[in-house]
TrEMBL record, chains A, B, C, D, E, F:
This is Hut operon positive regulatory protein. The keyword Glycoprotein does not apply. Keywords: Activator, RNA-binding, Transcription, Transcription regulation. The keyword Disulfide bond does not apply. The gene is hutP. It comes from Sporomusa silvacetica DSM 10669. Belongs to the HutP family. InterPro entries: Regulatory_HutP, Regulatory_HutP_sf.
Length: 144, 144, 144, 144, 144, 144
């Protein structure tokens, strides 16, 4: 069964055209998904890219409540990719990431709990040297 | 394209029989996968369940090098589900999780970098009250 | 000027009857305040005491959205009193605390941003030995 | 009853002239208080502002013992406003803060435990966008 | 040249009778050293063992200032052995440690900065299984 | 008895020519040691200095497995010197350090567990002001 977090994670994991198409077709009604990429040694750039996209793509209204929900979701996903040692450039590592933003019910058909926003980050983190990196994944979500 | 982390995460995300079958069929050679579940307010139980399964299922040899690689992979995945606030029962929350253990090359066909071990955790974390919980996901990996 | 966090913090700081009375009288409309105490070496007991009081006193409705907002507010306040080293009994220290729960607008008259919930913790933390302790304070808040 | 931490926190919370006057009048003997403000996305600027003021205003002697006590008090207060996720600009958030430095006995009349130094931080933290921020508070103290 | 931290660390590292003798002989005047061992999966036991020994051996006077300095030194050394993931039994690992407590000037002959207290922890941490463990070391110090 | 971590730590602690000579002479076969120094308020410079030296001195082969083991060892040692508050310049402190890199068996003669790599950091951390600093020590190690 589909759910908010699963949609967010599958969106960043599946890059083959047929997979993406399949995921789009199986997207339950009530969910809005955006997917893009960002890479940096400067963690603030990751936060900024997602915040900017979320506003431009209409995932959050122009009020602090919604921005706050998005921000904490990014922060939680960021902790997921950092795995206990928050930081990128300051500990000499870089991240090349796909991210997804998903807005919709926490679980399919669970209308009485309102809308939530999820952020997933997936990609590679490692030394700033080609191929010296491994996969990382983070997921965060909050009611919006 | 498949890779160690993607296999670990898709394994815990896909629970429908047809999905599981599809994933099994698309598993590149050289990878070994195990999947099970564990739930607790006591984080040590999550570590113990995965350690025990990994030994019983032959994912690690009986030496410290390999156990150490597995342990740190669990620890990193655990940080992913905790998102910056390590702890379960001590901060009054509980986790119901699927976990996967995957052993194989870091990326398909990347034989010259040896074998790695990945652990993925996916499920729900929240108040110890039915339905008061949301999805969490963590991924950790190390050379073995 | 009054605001959500200031009300929460003043509520736990002021214990003299005349101060409490003054604070009650100056409470802007739209705010609901509850204040009590909890002490323990077991951090889960602090979370449980506040969650239970919040439900019993009608600060949150019986849905996960609101419980989630309360939970994260407690967690943030808890980090405030722990100051970088989350934990109580596990690092051999104990806390004797007053806590407050406040629900209302983020700032007085700021109606367009909905309601928020704040938790403040104030008291003494230290060795489990009379008088070997110093003051600590934590504040957390989230939209509800 | 007054105490070191309470004085530090009330000092940053009370901004109305009459409140400030009241607090000054009720300040028990033996306490020295300084209050100012600092705002930045660069956490080092917050540390520097408080260190500089403490030296200039005579809160610490020119020796490492006292500077060390002040530094750790700032660090603990900083953890309080960060609530488990240390960092400002690196996680794309900014802080506009009032801070207080207080030196005196841990509790009024408790002369046999020497002098302590407390630092309180209170203000707003959030996105670098007007009004997209909420209150934060941190308190740290050490024997000096 | 000898210094507080170096004395604390050498004390826990050197276990051969001739090394211990050499260290005792080279101990500069003004330093007091105690050394013992503690092992547990329960981190509180490590704190308790050191606190108890420090009191019994006269390293701290019976006041909170000195106990506070000792406590924070233990806490800092504990972070050193935990290396970013505070916890023992809760993350299914155990520690078998030698610890030292040292009181004296921060550096030899540096009398104008008063006395400091240092705690060093050295030993093995790992799975609760014989030989599945590696060395860890932590050092903390504070003015007393 | 000698072991990987002890060699790493003694290497950074002992600076007198006769101590260094003694340590060199007592170095069990199978161990390779490098020792140098680095100082900065920018933590990335510490990571970079050690990574560069390890490559130049032949401590790691040119593959990600080995670089990964080194990186995590540096990261763990870095946590040791930071003692729960990761960061240098961002919390207005600076570090002047000696570091050692050691490669060899985890314990002398323990050949069946392969080679490990250890990193030790020792020196002074404190305010960016001469003499306002105290000793810190960190140790990290991983199988390579
Ligand atoms: Mg949550
Ligand atoms: Mg890694
Ligand atoms: Mg917030
Ligand atoms: Mg303290
Ligand atoms: Mg210090
Ligand atoms: Mg390890």
């Amino acid at each position: 069964m589909m759910s908010l977090g699963k949609i967010a994670v599958l969106s960043v994991l599946q890059t083959e055209p047929e997979e993406v198409k399949l995921l789009d077709q199986s997207l339950p009604s009530g969910y809005k998904v955006y997917k893009s990429k960002v890479g940096s040694m400067d963690s603030a750039k990751i936060f900024a890219a997602i915040e900017t996209a979320a506003k431009r793509e209409g995932f959050i209204s122009s009020n602090y409540r919604e921005e706050h929900a998005l921000y904490h979701s990014i922060l939680e996903a960021y902790h997921g990719i950092c795995r206990g040692n928050a930081g990128l450039g300051n500990v000499l590592r870089s991240a090349g990431l796909l991210y997804s933003i998903v807005r919709g019910p926490r679980t399919v058909g669970c209308a009485d709990d309102g809308e939530w926003i999820a952020v997933a980050l997936y990609g590679y983190m490692g030394a700033p040297m080609k191929g010296f990196e491994h996969e990382v994944l983070g997921l965060g979500m909050n009611p919006i």
